[in-house]
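Hi everyone, sorry if this is the wrong subforum. Our group has a chain we'd like a structural model of before ordering constructs, and none of us has done structure prediction before. Sequence below.
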Amino acid sequence: MHALTPTRPTPAPLTPAPPTPAPLTPQTTSAFRKETVMSVLPKPSLRRTLTALSGVAAALALSVPAAGALTSGTTSGTTTASPAAHGQDAFRGRTDAAVRKSLKALVKEDGFPGALASLSDPGGRARNYTAGVGNLKTGSKVPTDGQVRIASNTKMFTATVVLQLVGEGRIDLDAPIETYLPGLVRGDGIDGHDITVRQLLQHTSGLADYDEEVVKDYLTKQQHRYFEPRELVEFGLGKKALFAPGTGWSYSNTNYVLAGLLVQKVTGRPVGEEITHRIIEPLGLRHTYWPGVGDQTIKGRHPHGYFATAPDTPYTDVTEQDPSAGWAAGGLVGTPSDLNRFLTALLDGKLLEPEQLKEMKTTVDAPDLDTVGDGHYGLGLATFKLSCGGYAWTHGGNAPGYTTRNAVTEDGRAATIAVTALPTTLPAAEHIEAALDTALCTR
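Answer:
Right subforum, don't worry. Here is the predicted structure as tokens:
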């Protein structure tokens, strides 16, 4: 069981206290407007993903290959539940039936090709579920607890490594990023002397996202393109600052690519190696891995991932893609059950010392973080408001072909929901998060 207190995660300020953001201005929230370019990078904000979809739908539709295009709304298959070996009766009864129903609805009503779920209870007993098909061409089943691109859930791993280095005295959370990456963070209204490590992890740096630059002509040019991390940073720094550091909140992958570069500078080793040695291997996450340079495949059993430009448009198979556009902000591949194990271990204090975990859980308001509302964001860790009362700790991720939502409650229940496409309507986005809520609140 975790110490997930306080229930509403707005703890008293730490010393030194992170700045409290001022009310967000229209400029700060501009990333969520209807006219924005679609983000295919991993983000927890489905509102942003959806509103962005409309901006390039017509252009991307022209890029969908005519031959072999896959049509949405034709999925078939049955909903299945598979008990893990150590917990065959963990989720019988109301929970079991409710999760089955919610996954089936994601396939039948929202048109996702496939859906997966993994649940675990406070005693570690687990149960896995699937619905739909894993391959639209062959009609094969969704592999139980199959690997998916976990996208922005990677941020939790990156933040954990940074905080481990804080605990080791090698990084100061409230030191400017200039201390570690001198001369790199510069731009219009941007100076690395004024942005702290904490603000990068908390998305209060004011740095704009680079996502628009890596999604142009995605299906024809960007899907298989490799991006260097510094190239991604240059894209983000090429935009004017959204606000002065510490005076607002805006989700930005640029922050976490810089965090990855910070890890590499301090340790002298690749960030993927540090994540592997410090987190994946010690926790025994056997089906989670950092893709190698140029690796566009998913190594283990996995459902295919699909991409549609708008509602009722053809799905295109995007299972194979270069994950470098996400890097330390969203490059990992993993399974739903591994995500549950990671988040449970993190909140149980198995990865961070109490002081660093407390820092991670110190939150600020995070407008439009999800479709539920009233979100809060800490250092790579966010909150999810539950219909049954209180909050769960979460993050989530969106990548071309895959959407994941996951959370752990105060009493130690964990759940991850994954679907094999990005949603193209707000109701579909809401239904994914409702499925997560169902898994955690139905008993």
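For your construct planning: The two ends are 17 Å apart (CA to CA). The mean pLDDT is 84.
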